[in-house]
């Protein structure tokens, strides 16, 4: 691939453009907002100049509701040899393209499973897709050249190709992406009118659950409007669990010992099913999640503290498998939780204490 056209210079489009230009592809940028094009170009994502002729690949990075029309326009104008989109819903746009008279042979639906809470070109990075799954939804009529161009793009972005049926993809993302967004927002919405005292008690659990609730509502309305059925199906199943949990909790508040026992069993059931589901979420390098030991270290909010603790762990010969930071409310301090192999935890604790760090038992 020597040339590409990116239509839509938001987070995903600009990130793909940055990755391609960094590897020598000449990228042309298009957007309905000229300011976004200028911003993306200033970041090194490509040029706002029109291509001299058809580019090798057009990457359509617009909301799902607009994908089919933009792809049809790209094909009608002969702007590219092949065209892919990167929207988070796949079945609907493909069917709409057929209705518009587009060419399904030169088109391939795709979806990089990567993103951030922020949107727009300023949030883009060339490494956004590194190591992340990138779904491809070819059909028997998809041109091999278009598939190969898409695979080359994925390689340039450092992502991992995953081939799926379009409708199966939409059901999958309803479960692992779209419904979690709604649930996160619903939990965060409880905080809007909560007492200030309660809000000040927020710890890492509520921060984890509500992190993606900071996402752009307009963007998510467009995504959910393109995949409402599968999301509603998952939410209906969750609603059933919620009803059962409410009944179980009411039973736990009963004076009847038998009812309390049934309530405890109901709560235990959903918690254990949660354990089983969480155990299926891929861990490091896509493997089954490992069981790590956590070493929690008190850390002050000063420049260089994180670098120093990582350097001390490295000097002790211990590999940090994962890390998280728990901030102390109203204080210039917090705890860094270092996840390590169980056999390395004691050595790390001893080494950090010897270097003056204060450890916290979890």
Based on the coordinates given, report the CATH architecture of the largest domain: 3-Layer(aba) Sandwich
What is the strand tally?
11
Main beta sheet: 7 strands, mixed
Question: What is the chain-wise order of helices and strands?
Answer: EHEHEHEHEEHEHHHHHHEHEEHE
What strand line-up does the widest sheet have?
Answer: 2-1-3-4-5-6-7
CATH homologous superfamily placement of the largest domain: NAD(P)-binding Rossmann-like Domain
Termini separation comes to: 52 Å
Assembly category: single chain
Enumerate how many helices there are, as a single number.
Answer: 13
Q: Give the overall average pLDDT.
A: 92
Low-confidence stretches: none
The dominant shape is globular
Q: Quick one: CATH class of the largest domain? A: Alpha Beta
Helix content: 40-55%
CATH third-tier fold name of the largest domain: Rossmann fold
Q: Give the C-alpha Rg.
A: 24 Å
- Beta-strand content estimate: 15-25%
Structural class: alpha/beta
Question: What's the number of structural domains?
Answer: 3
Organism: Streptomyces daqingensis
Family: Belongs to the prephenate/arogenate dehydrogenase family.
Domain Prephenate/arogenate dehydrogenase: 2-289
Signal peptide: 1-19
Question: Could you describe the 3D structure shown?
Answer:
- InterPro entries: 6-PGluconate_DH-like_C_sf, ACT-like_dom_sf, ACT_dom, NAD(P)-bd_dom_sf, PDH_C, PDH_N, Preph/Arog_dehydrog, Prephen_DH.
- The structure is a single chain.
- By secondary structure, this protein is an alpha/beta fold.
- It has 3 domains: 162 residues, Rossmann fold, CATH 3.40.50.720; 41 residues; 68 residues, ACT domain (Alpha-Beta Plaits, 2-Layer Sandwich), CATH 3.30.70.
- The chain is built from 13 helices and 11 strands.
- The longest helix is centred in the middle third of the chain and has 27 residues.
- 31% of the residues are buried.
